[in-house]
Amino acid sequence: MDPTCLPRRLRALPRRSPHVLDASTGRARLLGLAGLAEAAVPSELGLHLPRTRSVHTAGMRFALDLVWLGRDGAVVRVDRGVRPWRLRTCLAARSVIETRAVGTS
Prior knowledge:
Blueprint: H1 8-11, E1 15-17, E2 20-22, H2 26-31, E3 46-50, E4 54-56, E5 64-69, E6 75-82, E7 87-89, E8 95-100
Parallel strand pairs: 2-3
Antiparallel strand pairs: 1-2, 3-8, 4-7, 5-6, 5-8
């Protein structure tokens, strides 16, 4: 994924893997993907939010798929198509990966 095609605020974030960025700052964690246009977020992009058991979708302009990860990094739950202005919590999780929802608009 070419970093120059990413929204400016995401370009400086460290990569966790080739397609997953790490929201390593408080600001990056708070904002997540909120406020960005759906077309500006590549479909293969994930944003990892460490030390997180809850996610809000306030300010989102598109639905999210949330992949909740346990302490060992294994998937403990997946929430698909979470619409804007919602709150999701997973007490078994220690982090989450936000992605554009697949098959929704």
